[in-house]
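Researcher: Let's do a round of design. I'm pasting the C-alpha cells now; please hold your answer until I've finished.
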C-alpha cells in the first residue's frame, strides 16, 4: 500500500516521502496515528499538494536542527562523577548523563536514544558521543568526565600482607627495652647464702 509520510519515521522513511508499506501496518498503525495518509488514484492531486507542504516543513525542521547542532558543538559538555583518587569511576557513564549535561550546557533537551556512546566509560577523561538529531544531521561531540568526591582506594593485597607481617616485629622492637648498665642484679659469691637463708654448714659447739 502506498502512503505519504507526514513525519520522519526511523527505518521507514522521511516526511513528505511516498512509500510502499504493508497494508496492515498502514491501516492499523501509521494512518490511525496520523503519521501517514493513504495514497489512491482519486487523491493524487491532494496528495501532491500535501507533499509540497510537507517538504517545506521538513526543510525548516532541518534548519532548526542544524542550529541546535551548531549550538551543541560550540558549548563544552562536562559530566561530574564520583571517583577514586586514581580517577576510576564508581560505575559507568550513560547516554542519559550525556543528555543531562547537554541540557545544562546548552538548554537544549535531546532524546537520550539519539545519543550513542561507548558503554565502557569508567574513568575520568575526554570521550566522543555520536548524536543523530535528524536523518540528515549527525554530529560527533566531545565531552569530558570530571571526578568529584575522591575516595582513596584500598591498597593491593600484597602490600596489606607485608604491612601486617611487619607490625608484630615493630611492636616487639618498641616494647623490649634493654636494661641500663650497672642495674643488673648481681649474684652472691659462691658459697655465701642468699639473704634470708640459713647456712647449711654445721656451727661449732659452744665451750
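Researcher: That's everything. Go ahead.
Model: Designed sequence:
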Amino acid at each position: 500500500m502506498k502512503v505519504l509520510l507526514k513525519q520522519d519515521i526511523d527505518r521507514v522513511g522521511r516526511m513528505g516521502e511516498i512509500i510502499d508499506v504493508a497494508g496492515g501496518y498502514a491501516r492499523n498503525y501509521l494512518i490511525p496515528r496520523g503519521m501517514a495518509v493513504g495514497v489512491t488514484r482519486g487523491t493524487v492531486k491532494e496528495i501532491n499538494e500535501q507533499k509540497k507542504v510537507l517538504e517545506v516543513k521538513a526543510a525548516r525542521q532541518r534548519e532548526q536542527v542544524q542550529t541546535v547542532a551548531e549550538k551543541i558543538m560550540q558549548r563544552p559538555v562536562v559530566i561530574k562523577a564520583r571517583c577514586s583518587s586514581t580517577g576510576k569511576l564508581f560505575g559507568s557513564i550513560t547516554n542519559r548523563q550525556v543528555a543531562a549535561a547537554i541540557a545544562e550546557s546548552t538548554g537544549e533537551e535531546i532524546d537520550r536514544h539519539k545519543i550513542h556512546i561507548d558503554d565502557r566509560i569508567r574513568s575520568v577523561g575526554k570521550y566522543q558521543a555520536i548524536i543523530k538529531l535528524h536523518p540528515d544531521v549527525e554530529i560527533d561531540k566531545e565531552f569530558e568526565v570530571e571526578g568529584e568526591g575522591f575516595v582513596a582506594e584500598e591498597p593491593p593485597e600484597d602490600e596489606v600482607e607485608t604491612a601486617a607481617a611487619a607490625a608484630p616485629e615493630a611492636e616487639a622492637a618498641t616494647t623490649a627495652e634493654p636494661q641500663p648498665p650497672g642495674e643488673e642484679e648481681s649474684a652472691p659469691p659462691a658459697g655465701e647464702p642468699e639473704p634470708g637463708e640459713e647456712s647449711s654448714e654445721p656451727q661449732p659447739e659452744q665451750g
